[in-house]
Specification:
binds S-adenosylmethionine; 11 strands; 8-stranded mixed sheet; alpha/beta; 7 helices
């Protein structure tokens, strides 16, 4: 599958897959979207304390990088588990401008995020452990009642409908602790109905610039 680096409206890079006509992030701004959805309405919306985070789709590592920075800033202990079936080639990763846009002092950390071993804990900072899982979400046995927060960052329903079905979302529900939160940029009607069917409480929140709405779902 061919992948190309492109630039989004806030000046930050993303990856485009012509075959799927899909980008890894919002074309209105990759960093802007990640900060709004996963930091503001994810990490920063939760109480103080240690966090176990699961990310659906490691991809470019942008969310992991922003979370590392946030963990350092908030002095918050984070265990960051991220699943990826189709890792991005290092040659493309090296062409992304995230560390230049976010903080160039993270250059080595960002590289290590991509070159470190899969399927084991890697201590990237005193308070931050990364654990990349090289697997398909469909085949992955997710630990139950383990995560405080899920970054649900799959390709959109138009490009990869299966990711937004009850089957996959059931796994996410079971993986969260009570009171745990799933956040995503997506606000599709069928997706929200699936969350409700599973027992999630839904919050429709204003989306990042260029998107009307996003979704925050809480396991009661
Ligand atoms: C929207 S992109 C990820 C964005 C990523 N969080 C980032 O910031 O770059 C979705 C990711 O899900 C991965 N993916 C697609 N199908 C998958 C599957 N069945 N299991 C695990 N990962 C999958 C893709 O390879 C891609 O990296």
């Amino acid at each position: 599958m061919q992948r190309k680096v492109s630039i989004t409206d806030d000046g930050s890079s993303t990856i485009f897959i012509p075959e799927m006509d899909e980008t890894y992030h919002s074309s209105h701004g990759a960093i802007q979207e990640a900060r709004h959805v996963f930091l503001k309405h994810g990490i920063e919306s939760l109480d103080e304390g240690d966090l176990r985070i699961f990310e659906m789709g490691f991809g470019t590592g942008l969310n992991a990088l922003l979370t590392l920075q946030s963990s350092n800033r908030l002095n918050k202990k984070v265990a960051y588990h991220s699943i990826e079936a189709y890792p991005v080639e290092l040659e493309l990763i090296e062409r992304l401008n995230y560390v230049d846009e976010i903080d160039a002092s993270y250059t080595e950390d960002f590289k290590l995020m991509h070159t470190c071993d899969w399927n084991e804990d890697v201590q990237l900072a005193e308070q931050f452990v990364l654990h990349k899982i090289h697997a398909k979400i469909e085949e992955y046995a997710m630990p139950e009642a383990f995560y405080d927060l899920i970054f649900f960052d799959a390709f959109g329903p138009r490009a990869q409908e299966k990711m937004w079905t009850i089957e996959i979302l059931h796994k996410m529900y079971d993986g969260l602790v009570k009171g745990g939160v799933l956040v995503t940029y997506c606000a599709q009607g069928q997706f929200k109905r699936n969350l409700k069917t599973l027992g999630f409480e839904i919050e429709a929140l204003p989306g990042p610039p260029g998107k009307r709405e996003m979704t925050r779902a809480i396991k009661p």
